[in-house]
Amino acid sequence: MVRKPMPRMHVVRTRPAFYGFKQVTPLKLLGALLMVLALTPLTNTSAETPKQGTIAFHGKLDNGLEVVVVPDRRAPVVTHMVWYRAGGADEPQGKSGIAHFLEHLMFKGTDTIPAGEFSKIVARLGGQDNAFTAQDITAYFQRVAKEKLPDVMRMEADRMANLRLEDKDVTTERKVIIEERRSRVDNDPGSLLQEQMMAALYTAHPYHTPVIGWEPEMRGLMRADALTFYKKFYAPNNAILVVTGDVEPEQVMALAKDTYGKVNANPEVGGPRRRPVEPAPLAEKRVLLRDGRVGKATIERYYLTPSFSTAEQGEAEALQILGHIVGNSNTSRMYNKLVRDEKKASSASAYYSGLGLDSGRFGFYAIAAGDVKLEDIEASLDAVIKDVIDNGVTAEELERAKTTEIANLIYSSDSQQSLAHTYGWNLATGRSVADVEARQERLAAVTKESVQAVAAKYLDRKRSVTGYLIPVPSQLAKVEVKPGSNAGTFH
Amino acid sequence: MNLFIKGRTFTRNALPIALLSILAFAALPANAMQIQEITSKKGIKAWLVEDHTRPIVSLQFAFQGGAAQDPAEKPGVTTFVCGMMDEGAGDLTSEAFQQRLEDLAAKMNFSPSYDHVAGSFQMLSKNRDESLKLLKAALISPHFDAPDAERIRQQLLANLKVEEKDPDKVASHEWFKLAFGAHPYGKPVGGTQDSVSHITPDDLHRYVKRIFARDNVKVAVVGDIDPASLSEVLDSVFGELPEKSDRMPVSNVSWQDGAKQKILQMPNPQSVAQFGFKGLLRKDPDFIPGFILNYVIGGGGFSSKLMQEVREKRGLAYSVYTYLYPLEHTGIFAGGVATENKEVGHSLDVIKSELERAASDGLTEQELKAAKDYLIGSYALRFDTSVKIAGQLLAIQLDNLGIGYIEKRNSEIEAITAADIKRVAKRLLDPKNLIVIVVGEPEGVKEVGL
Q1: Active site residue A103
Q2: In contact, B113 and B178? CB cutoff 8 Å
Q3: For residue B17, is it within any domain?
Q4: Set A48, A91, A103, A300: catalytic member
Q5: Residue of chain B with shortest Cα separation from A29
Q6: I want to staple A137 with a disulfide (CB 3.0 to 4.6 A). Which of A357, A428, A438, B114 is the partner?
Q7: Per-residue pLDDT tens digits for B146-179
Q8: Helix or strand or coil: residue A303?
């Protein structure tokens, strides 16, 4: 009966699956919750390519569809994914939520598949399917026995071009996404705070707007809006096919040619993805959410940073290592100072989230111990930041962080789903197969100096939003936003 | 065609993988997967699947016992113990222990449930022996020092504070309380503010002495390790535990007749409802038909009846589901839905009528066939990573299903007939005794049977 929290960037079509029979009460619940919120999909699901093992095949069809295949022959199953280079940040003004709404509607029907049958057919094949939407991508996947791969490829290729939507299905599904918003956001003051903080972090860039959508705009989303988005972005030359598991690249290429190869390219799509540019940050912002539903006072802080896609060489990896040293575990600086030494917080952490196409962020998080004031916790958090900027990190911390981050790559190579996720995400956000396969090497190249340098450069209050989640007896949520002024241009 | 194939020639002849299809229920879930039962010199048993393609080893184990063994007045001890396992052991303090784990890139996690304490230990094969010394120390000589216990207590108490405002957690806790009352299953695994405040390091030590033993541990290992090495590992990690555990007898649950419905007010725009009634023990001969029934009613994602009726046809919810939860001393058939406050009554009516329909009619041949196709065809998906394989091997041991279970499981499902389903549906599905908890500001429902 425990619903697992989902990574914030994703909006998934179904509730997280209930996998087993055993009820697991998460240990150190808030720590675990934070890990999920904090972990970027990259470190969460990142793939290692051990020399003896997985090397990705990368090909392309004539119509522009990129194909990535990573063989893993240990079980006779495959993971089949299609990633579109389109997400929440590509939506037209006033239509927030349409990328995710379309993702739901893609399960309705096509010329050959009756409405509502897609997932039932996959289930009859012994397969599992789902989809998810983030700011920069929308992805669809099926997991099936290897001999069913041709069937799911045919079906996924079919709905790339032949979606059919009835008004009544659209009306019903709109209610579903509004219920989804209530479950994920409106019922949870912690999510509401994060939504407000993202809106404050980005002034002009569309990462300002939540992927699920603002509720008033969601209510106005129509069949025509979904189809417009579909026609604009869903085409083979704006997509990446990823297949991992018990397959040969030649087989996948041949099947892809017979299925996706028959879908026409869209000449209007596929160029550089241009979005409103975020102006240079000038003023720190604070967001205070007072809500009767808050269990414990909590502080979060976000800083604007580059992402793996936008960073200068080595900066994103240095930020990843910085995140580890400052806040990844119970031996981190945040935990040691705020929890072990000062006992101001019951948990404390920090993380780098670097998977965005246009921007990344560095985050801090702490839950108050007892009745400690958030201002007191914030002072300690600022002391942690000042210390790392002034004095850098130790050689021992650097080694430990690298060991864990590199081992995480090896651990995640155990999962064909993780491999598919990693290659798909990276290729859909402007990175290459070579970038994915160079991650170990690039992490190993991080130095104490580069970690201190990114801390000094990016952990600057001007770039930040600080959020307080404050318990109050009143039942009504009140949000105060104090935006700073913004001017100038971003680099 | 614009092909970039690294050092390979692309030919059309490599295509027809569809021709390789084999009867799904005859297929082994993993390629050449072989389970070996290893018995160490000291008699500790483990199931092993060797996989030398990745330089990692996954070790999963569980001690039978769990939160049902918490002292009656101190629920939460098991959870507290799990939270303390990496807080210092042997000659290492809390921080030194955790740093050593990180230096070796080993991952250790303990998780509590009503019937077990489960441990998961992942390590790089090159650091295997050094990593396992930490696991051994945690099991044999955990410190539970007062300052560390105090810090973890604050964390557990903060978690409980947050859970008090989390509608899913509140609904779940209240459901177990209403269904099981004074039985250990009626108490929250994580304890209460009051109980967690009073648990002492001595309570933790006493629990470990009673529960961490050799006669109640099950072990599963997958990865880069051979049988001879595993045999030594078993003796070194588990060999110094007491031979026998000291568990209190736990009675079987006796269920009371009658529907119950309880409402807890919480100022949310959406209500969370959890519902359920008596289910099946895993060893019950009707478990497999019950499992199929659950899949069709609410366990099967988009294909399920509840998903169709509540979400696809009516748009009442994003999430609606059921599951079978077999415990040691009873079984549960349970489910949940989250829906706009004014639609709670409507949603629950739809769910109840689906349960009633299935109770009286069972499943159609078509529904049964579709369920079998999925359950049989998807079994292999549970075996595609080391961690998942180890989890399956452990669960099969805990459920006492035997080492040959994986090979016969699909034929057990295949053998079920519509008549079996109809009989079991009548026995299992019991909407007259439905226990429902609603958390929110629901409309169209009232409290019943309290």
Answers
A1: yes
A2: no
A3: no
A4: A103
A5: B159
A6: A428
A7: 999 999 999 999 999 999 999 999 999 999 999 9
A8: strand
> pTM value?
0.90
The residue behind tokens 């096509």 is A110
User: What are the angstrom distances between the C-alpha of B262 and each of A187, B436, B448?
Assistant: 20, 6, 7
Q: What angle do CA A178, A198, A461 make, to 5 degrees?
A: 165
Say whether both B198 and B287 belong to one domain.
no
8 A C-beta contact, residue B29 and residue B388: no
Range of B220's domain?
Answer: 36-238
A462 — contact with chain B (CB < 8 Å)? no
Q: Does A59 touch chain B (CB under 8 A)?
A: yes
Do A49 and A196 lie in one domain? The reply is yes
When pLDDT is cut at 50, 70 and 90, the band that residue B28 belongs to is low
Asked if A256 and A296 sit in the same domain, the reply is no
Whether residues B193 and B285 share a domain: the answer is no
Interface confidence (ipTM) of the complex: 0.91
**Cα B190 to Cα B82: distance, rounded to the nearest angstrom:** 10
Distance separating alpha carbons of residues B73 and A19, to the nearest angstrom: 32
**What's the mean pLDDT in B444-449?**
96
Q: Classify A464 in phi/psi space as left (phi over 0), alpha (psi -120 to 50) or beta.
A: beta
- Tell me how many domains chain A contains: 2
One domain, residues B72 and B120: yes
Which residues are within 8 A (CB) of A94 and not within 5 positions of it... i.e. 6 or more apart?
A217, A220
Same domain, A411 and A463: yes
Cβ of A50 and B165 within 8 Å? no
Inter-chain contact B314–A172, Cβ cutoff 8 Å? Answer: yes
Query: pLDDT of B275-313, one tens digit each?
Result: 999 999 999 999 999 999 999 999 988 889 999 999 999
Claim to verify: residue B218 and residue B295 sit in the same structural domain: no
Mapped onto helix, strand or coil, the DSSP state of residue B174 is: helix
A65-112 pLDDT, tens digit per residue, is 999 999 999 999 999 999 999 999 999 999 999 999 999 999 999 999
DSSP output for B299-314 = ISGGGSHHIIIIIITT
User: Hey, how many other C-beta atoms are within 10 angstroms of the C-beta on B22?
Assistant: 11
The number of folded domains in chain B is 2
Classify residue A2: in a domain, yes or no: no
Which CATH number fits the domain that encloses residue A181?
Answer: 3.30.830.10
Q: Where among B238, B268, B283 does a domain terminate?
A: B238
CA-CA distance, B299 to B378, in Å (whole number)? 14
Which residues span the domain enclosing A289?
A: 285-482
Tokens 């059309």 correspond to B12
Could you read off the pLDDT of B331-357 as tens digits, one per residue?
999 999 999 999 999 999 999 999 999
Nearest chain A alpha carbon to B381:
A77
| CB-based contact A414 B317, cutoff 8 Å | no
| CB contact (8 A) between residue B376 and residue A126 | yes
**With b meaning 16 or more CB within 10 Å and e meaning fewer, what string describes B35-60?**
beebebeeebebbbbbbebbbbbbbb
Is the confidence at residue A473, as pLDDT, over 90?
no
